[in-house]
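Handout, page 2. Input:
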Amino acid sequence: MPWIPARFFPGSPQYNMERTAFLMRLERAQQEKERQERAEREQKERLAEQQRVKQEQLQRELEQLRAAEKKRLAQETERRAAQERSAREAQQQGQPRIVAASSSSVTTPTIVSPNNVVIRWQDLTIIQGPAGELGAGGFGIVRRGTWQSVPVAVKTLIVQTTQPNTLNEFRKETEIMATLQHPNIVRLYGICLEQGHNSMVMEYMQHGSLLDFLENNPNISWSVRWNIALDISKGLLCLHQHSPVIMHRDLKSPNVLLDEHNRAKICDFGLAKVRHTTRLNTSRANPASTRGFIGTVNWTAPELFEPTAPYTPACDIYSLGIILWELATCKTPWANATAEALIGIWVGQGRREPIPANTPPPFARLIANCWATRAESRPPIAAIVQELEQHQNEIQATAAQTTTMPPPAPRST
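Output:
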């Protein structure tokens, strides 16, 4: 009979010790298994709770989005109705610089050219096709052309029917541009009044809009950015110091154009308002302000998302702050928003795009001050111009020590 170790005999001390150790290991394994199962259950519960909270948050945002969109549509409907009322009043009362033609059974408003600068359509050479199209504004398409051998941009009405609203907007923009003679405002050469060719003839800006320029040139020096910011601010200063004050109401990077030397000029005054002549949506509490949701959402001041918010020069300052942020980042504001109404919700909650850490401190302060939530906290445009001029030499000296990109190539004809 072979020898058998004592630990295999039940009742022996060694057997009892090993049995006890085995049972303890088995119990620890069981406890570890239960602990892991409990941890997995808790993790699943936490994930489920997080999912539930996220779902509730998304549902709230969706409800806010729907409410904001409903409010926006109501405001837009009210604005259009007010414009139609104003047009009817203008026809009944007779507006300056609008003459009603009596040679037809249909009343056709005819625009009187500012400063009598009338340009014949036959004197314009318009470049057709994609190569000549520069963009589109609120009521016109802009094409490249020449006038007296000078490169020009020609903005022609999209709707060539004689609708009073359309022609009133056209008249308003031409009158505003005709009164503004400033190096940082796009120059108006004249207008064409021929039937089917109602157009504005403006100076041609070779490097196009600031929006496209920043997208195509993300590595421009701070010296160039600073000069552009100063140019825009000086143009806005011209508007706000005009007598009476002119509010642009649609200030954004697509409405800032650059010439061949990257000098910036403000354009597109289709939504601009002269404060003392404004009759649409006028605030009774503040007759010098205009009401209504106007402009592009990405650049719109937070107070304008309220249905009765007055439009003041501080709203233009907020838009300028967004443009300064674009210059600091070379990015489009709120590009990650899936719907315009979300931007209104975020801005109303006080959220702003992050300012890059490498932004010069004076520039970063200007951005933060310009897009302050409270309109009265935003600096006046004169103070902004002074601040930019104060640090201009410092920025240029710093930029001279770094490598800068050459300006983009001119557009092909």
